[in-house]
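Propose amino acids for all 275 sites.
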């Protein structure tokens, strides 16, 4: 890891980009593929908006230094819990892009890219989709990648991973799809099934959307999984330990016929888009 003394001067970096979508849709796979690019560092789940946006009013006017520093300190403590070495507070202050809610996140992502020896940053928090319209407004120069997967496989995976009820998992998929459908022309859609069936073609399209050159070594993303991800998200590593495979397509067929019909009926409006 690059030392804190080497990660100042981030103003020349490009605006960060975002990866989001319903949990268990393949956002981690997309993030790690992009993270293996020689220019790109993708932070795995800051959860910045879900954690801090609902309580932002409690910090008061961020134009006041004490309020801003309170937010920054809380954010850096969260980073430390995630087993990522946070930048020193003095380094963060010096690199601060703007004294705003959005500026704090941008600064963290820029510094993270520098820590990884990269010059471009990205962020992957699936449930940032709940704030998609706001993110598009507040980060007008930041590309957004939205990942979608067959709702039947998504619900099956949510159930298997988190033990959720079908109704809850289905509601989550529909919530994510609705957030996408409202701004579909402003984001880049990645269909999970296409990604695993035609990885090179889809990865090239993502790179083109970001204005980056495709690198063949991105197919070997599994050789560069960050240590903090291995430690904090072991459940995500199963499909990240080797090349992209199609074995997760159609796993919903292990469910009962009634459960499958329930998901199809509830998600009918978005089924065509996910295929």
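Proposal:
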């Amino acid at each position: 890891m690059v030392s804190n003394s080497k990660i100042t001067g981030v103003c020349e970096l490009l605006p960060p980009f975002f990866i989001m979508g319903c949990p268990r849709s393949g956002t981690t796979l997309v993030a790690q593929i992009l993270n293996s690019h020689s220019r790109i560092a993708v932070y795995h789940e800051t959860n910045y908006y879900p954690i801090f946006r609902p309580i932002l009013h409690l910090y008061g006017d961020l134009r006041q230094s004490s309020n801003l520093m309170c937010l920054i300190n809380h954010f850096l403590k969260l980073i430390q819990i995630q087993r990522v070495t946070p930048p020193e507070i003095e380094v963060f202050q010096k690199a601060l892009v703007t004294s705003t809610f959005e500026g704090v996140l941008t600064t963290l992502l820029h510094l993270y890219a520098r820590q990884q020896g990269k010059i471009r940053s990205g962020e992957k928090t699936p449930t940032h989709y709940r704030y998609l319209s706001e993110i598009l407004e507040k980060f007008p120069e930041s590309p957004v990648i939205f990942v979608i997967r067959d709702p039947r496989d998504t619900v099956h995976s949510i159930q298997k991973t988190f033990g959720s009820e079908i109704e809850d998992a289905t509601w989550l998929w529909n919530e994510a799809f609705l957030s996408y459908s409202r701004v579909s022309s402003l984001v880049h859609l990645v269909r999970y099934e296409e990604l695993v069936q035609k990885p090179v073609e889809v990865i090239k399209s993502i790179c083109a959307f970001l204005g980056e050159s495709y690198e063949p070594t991105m197919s070997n993303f599994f050789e560069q999984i960050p240590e903090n991800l291995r430690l904090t998200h072991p459940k995500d590593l199963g499909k990240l330990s080797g090349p992209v495979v199609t074995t997760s397509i159609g796993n919903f067929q292990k469910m009962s016929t009634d459960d499958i019909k329930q998901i199809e009926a509830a998600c009918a409006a978005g089924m065509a888009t996910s295929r």
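The longest helix spans residues 65-81. The chain has one domain: 4-148+183-244.
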